[in-house]
Amino acid sequence: MADYQRPAYDSIKHKLRQRWKIILAGLASLVLVDILQLTIPRVIKHAVDDLAMAGGYGKNLGRYGLTLLGIGLAIALFRYCWRRCLLGTARFVEETIRNRLFDHLQNMSPAFFDTVSTGDIMAYATNDIQQVRMAIGMGMVALNDAIVLGMAAIGFMLYIDVELTFYVMIPMPLIVISSRLLGRKMHRGYQQVQSAFAAMTENIRQRLSAIRLIKAHDLYRQSSSQMAEASSHYVQSNMKLVRVAGLFFPLMLFFTNMSLALVLWLGGSRTMVGSITPGDFVAFLHYLGLMTWPMMAMGWVINLVQRGKASLDRLDQVMRTVPEIRQVAAPKRLRQCRGGITFEKVEFAYPDRKRQPVISGISFDLEPGQVLGLVGPPGSGKTTILSLIMRHYDIGRGRIMLDGIDLRQLSLDDIRNCLAWVSQEPFIFAGTIRENLTLGRQDISGQHLRNVLRAVALEKTIADLPKGLDTLVGEKGVILSGGQKQRVAFARALLKDSSLLLLDDPVSQVDAATGHHLINTLRQLSGRKTMIIASHRIAAVRFADKIICLDKGKLVAVGSHEHLADRQGYYRQMIMLQETDNAF
Fold first, then answer.
1. Contact 157/287 with Cβ under 8 angstroms?
2. N or C: which end of the chain has fewer CB within 10 A?
3. Which pLDDT tens digit goes with each residue over 85-98?
4. Rounded to the nearest 10 degrees, what angle do helices 129-144 and 88-107 cross at?
5. Do 342 and 365 contact (CB within 8 A), yes or no?
6. What pLDDT is stored for residue 294 in this prediction?
7. Quick one: what percent of the chain has pLDDT higher than 70?
8. Looking at 205-209, 338-342, 549-553, which range is the least confident one?
């Protein structure tokens, strides 16, 4: 069972502990780069002093030049090392969080996806995780430079002239004050930006998914207008953030220039009177230049951390969400699934409609190998019953048993390995037909695959495609018709070879001849598989051992086809209507 007590923060800590040696090597390389950068002004100081004492000609300039070249090569080498170690670690952290988020989302109940948009989920998996990576990678680098390079530069400046350094440090408290004042506003701003990004992503996804509908109904203007509105909201959220975050870097530059002005004014006069050498003055200016990055880095660190923390809080909130459907600590196991299903006074309401039960008081018993038909008007609860058997949702009252064991006492793997499902709106992955049929299984023989294709009337259709089974079907199977998609879904359910087969309107999108072929396939499976068929077509359920009529979530009639056909009610009305349709 998954551990839901370790949020995104703990995932980061775990990965950092794993790579602590690499992180230390990266930090050591980064410190060495800082030390080498701090050495450059000392070399320049000696070169300038030599020039001043030699009256404009320095005999050691070649040696100083070679020294600077060597320092530059060393800086390049160690800079490569710290980027590989520290930024590489941030990439591995990004991978860890993304994989854990995806695993967590796969364990979430369908009810979660009923309320959370795909745009939000995509924002979590892309933009939010990217912000966390930046906070860890460049945030670690900027923080190190702010501390090591900044403190060391201050130390060298103190060594040159204490009083001059004191004047240079005057702007520092202003940096701390501005950071504290703007930090909280930045955090709230980043959260609003991420939410706006999620909304815009969902807007784009919906309109691209519905591009054929938009073209067919000439909805270009409405679609563009809605997209422009979402984009404008995202821009406005960013502009609000820019008004706050955009103050940091200008403030850092202003404070740096303030220090530079003080150095030129006070340091220049000291050089002229001989208090410090020209070399010391030039070195002091270089150290002040090195201080520019740490001062800016302090603002950047706060910027990155606030952005990363806002994203991490969003990720943490999702990853702390516990699935509604969870198996018990010590589940009972099915040694061999036979497919017997029992409903005992089952009542269920969807989470957002708890006061309006979708089904109420449903009871029936289905022996292994029997066929149950579910009929009723739209919204009567047929699809809900199938979802409850798969334990996509948990019932409110009563019991559902599989082979005599309450579903809530079984492991989720046992339940779902026991059954195959053909949905009312079959989903097709954007791969090949073979990949959609086998779903990654390598143990399906070519002969078995051909037999199943023949059983669902797909053999000729696939033979007519340019690459047969290896034909790419596009996003959501765009090159396939509705009936072909339905038969692909039917075929992959048969390839699973499970004991329990659940079919939701399996012939709703095929023509009469193909529907007749599929129904004959189901007849041949009768006795070998337990089948529950929800359908609006009477022909799809008339051979069932038992047929249940539903109305407004309640069982109103039950019996065989012959029994229900002789009684007044929904079933007989549907027979008469469908016979009339066939007559035309």
1. yes
2. C
3. 999 999 999 888 88
4. 150
5. yes
6. 67
7. 89
8. 205-209
373 neighbors 533 (Cβ within 8 angstroms)? yes
**Angle 308-15-300 from CA coordinates, rounded to 5°:** 25
Separation between Cα atoms, residue 155 and residue 158, nearest integer Å:
5
Assess contact for 339 and 401: CB atoms under 8 A.
Answer: no
Going from the C-alpha of 140 to that of each of 9, 25, 78, 508, the distances in angstroms are 16, 13, 16, 58
d(CA 237, CA 128): 16
Dist CA 88 CA 447 (whole Å): 48
At a CB cut-off of 8 Å and minimum separation 6, what does 138 contact?
87, 90, 300, 304
Most confident of 148-157, 401-410, 463-472: 401-410
Residue 479 CA to residue 456 CA, distance in Å, equals: 18
Residue 280: is its pLDDT beyond 80? no
Dist. CA 326–CA 318, nearest whole Å: 17
The Cα–Cα gap between 487 and 506 comes to 8
Count of residues in the chain: 584
Q: What average pLDDT does the structure give for the chain?
A: 83
DSSP letter at 531 equals E
Q: Are 234 and 200 in contact (CB under 8 A)?
A: yes
Residue 426's alpha-carbon distances to 49, 235, 380, 506, in angstroms, are 81, 37, 21, 10
Q: Angle CA(141)–CA(196)–CA(109) in degrees, nearest 5? A: 95
530-565: b or e for each residue (b if 16 or more CB lie within 10 Å)?
bbbbbbbbbbbbbbbbbbbbbbebebebeeebeebb
Chain segment 46-60, per-residue pLDDT in tens = 777 777 765 555 567
Predicted TM-score (pTM) of the model is 0.73
Q: Residue 369: helix, strand or coil by DSSP?
A: coil
SS3 content of the chain, % helix, strand, coil (to 5): 65, 10, 25
Beta-strand runs (E) in 210-353 = 341-348
Tokens matching residue 414: 């046992």
Sheet holding 530-534, edge to edge: 419-422, 500-504, 530-534, 371-375, 546-551, 554-559
pLDDT at 500 over 90: yes
Q: Residue 491 has which token pair?
A: 């075929």
Report the sign of the C-alpha dihedral through residues 376, 379, 383, 389, in that order: negative
The tokens of 529 are what?
A: 């598989």
